[in-house]
Design brief:
7 helices, Cytochrome Bc1 Complex, Chain D, domain 2, 40% helix, extended, mainly alpha, 221 residues
């Protein structure tokens, strides 16, 4: 009685596979990737501009920090965890992470706009996932459970020498992984220069802006 059903089951198996394929087609529908071409629009672009009157939420630099809270700052950083160090100044929690250097060696190159742009590029790649693009410690990795680092704009880090920041990037500190084996020395100094620019931007005054750029800001206020 069962034997005569086997050929029928064999015939139905391809149909079942076809049903599954139809379901997958509903999930995996055709779509455009950002900035790809499209013949549907007169300008040939698939990415469309916002319609007039649309208010963009969680856009711009704020969207990449402070958990995307529009016009709000991230909560204050918790007190940093004090890690035990041995007599050589090396963390017992992470033996790779050494204590920062006590020297006060400044950035060994001229701080130019090109250096700051390079520093921003490297910072956004290696540092922003934890520290966020604004340095407030609310990066994407932190939002997913990683310990939140101290904000870079604290008085303690503002007063720290450039060599301290360089050594932290190089050797790591606490739960921060060392980047000395993946970021070139000149790029680490560029990151330090950009961190200084970030710190300065947190409480910069209008009088600190060049006169020609200051007028443009005043016109927007």
């Amino acid at each position: 009685m069962i034997l005569w059903r086997l050929p029928l089951l064999v015939l139905l198996l391809p149909l079942a596979a076809g049903c599954e394929r139809a379901m997958q087609n509903m999930y995996d529908q055709p779509k455009y990737k950002p900035l790809t071409a499209s013949p549907l629009w007169s300008d040939g672009k698939s990415s469309r501009p916002l319609e007039p009157g649309v208010v963009a939420h969680s856009a711009g630099a704020l969207a990449a920090t402070s958990s995307g809270r529009m016009a709000q700052l991230a909560p204050p950083s918790p007190a940093p965890t004090v890690l035990p160090l041995d007599d050589r100044g090396i963390s017992r929690v992470n033996p790779i992470a050494t204590a920062p250097s006590e020297t006060t060696r400044p950035i060994p190159t001229a701080v130019t706009m090109a250096l700051l742009q390079r520093g921003r590029n490297r910072f956004d790649i290696y540092c922003a996932p934890c520290h966020s693009v604004s340095g407030d410690g609310d990066g994407m990795v932190v939002r997913r459970g990683f310990p939140r680092p101290e904000a870079l704009s604290t008085a303690k880090l503002r007063a720290a020498p450039d060599s301290h920041l360089f050594d932290v990037v190089t050797n790591g500190y606490g739960v921060m992984y060392p980047f000395g084996d993946r970021i070139a020395s000149q790029d680490r100094w560029a990151i330090v220069a950009y961190v200084r620019a970030l710190q300065f931007s947190q409480d910069a005054r209008l009088e600190d802006v060049p006169a020609d750029q200051r007028r443009a800001i005043e016109e927007q206020r």
